[in-house]
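The passage that follows is intended for readers who have already worked through the single-chain material. We present the inputs for a multi-component assembly, then the predicted structure in tokenized form, and finally a short commentary. You are encouraged to pause after the input and sketch how you expect the pieces to fit together before reading on.
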Amino acid sequence: MDRKLGNCDGCKKEIKKKHLKKLNSGRFCDKCCSKKRLEHREYLKREILHIRKRSDILKEYEERKKREGLVPKIAGSKSRIKGKSKLFLYLTKLEKDFLWKKYIQMGMNPINIYERIKYDVNFLQELVSKLRDERKTDEEINKTFKEEFAKLIMENGQ
Ligand SMILES: [Zn+2]
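Having made your guess, compare it with the prediction:
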């Protein structure tokens, strides 16, 4: 066996050792390295930023709806029942990327940006639940949500 060759720990392909990159979990070829980087980004987004996939969020929503269906309806909570809302607010990937770019342009470092976006997402979520508590209509909530997001973008865009 050629001593200059080594196997990628990802795809197991045999390539020149000098082309293998050392990562925590082993040595990898370029292709596997970039795949791992992408996976790590996804991980950060999901676990650190709590940015979840739309399908996950929808699943959770369905489960909650099912659970709430089991809870007996309390008299006088009509507006809640009426609020069988289809509205489900969250920041899209695009919106988060937008924030991300803003903060990069502001010269913030990635660690701070993670924290900052987490904070922003939290802020918007709390805002929405506050408006829900105030029994605002979906339309009103949606409008406020968008306004607040726009403000966020403008504030940071200086
Ligand atoms: Zn590989």
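Commentary: The chain has a mean pLDDT of 78. The radius of gyration is 23 Å. How closely did your sketch match?
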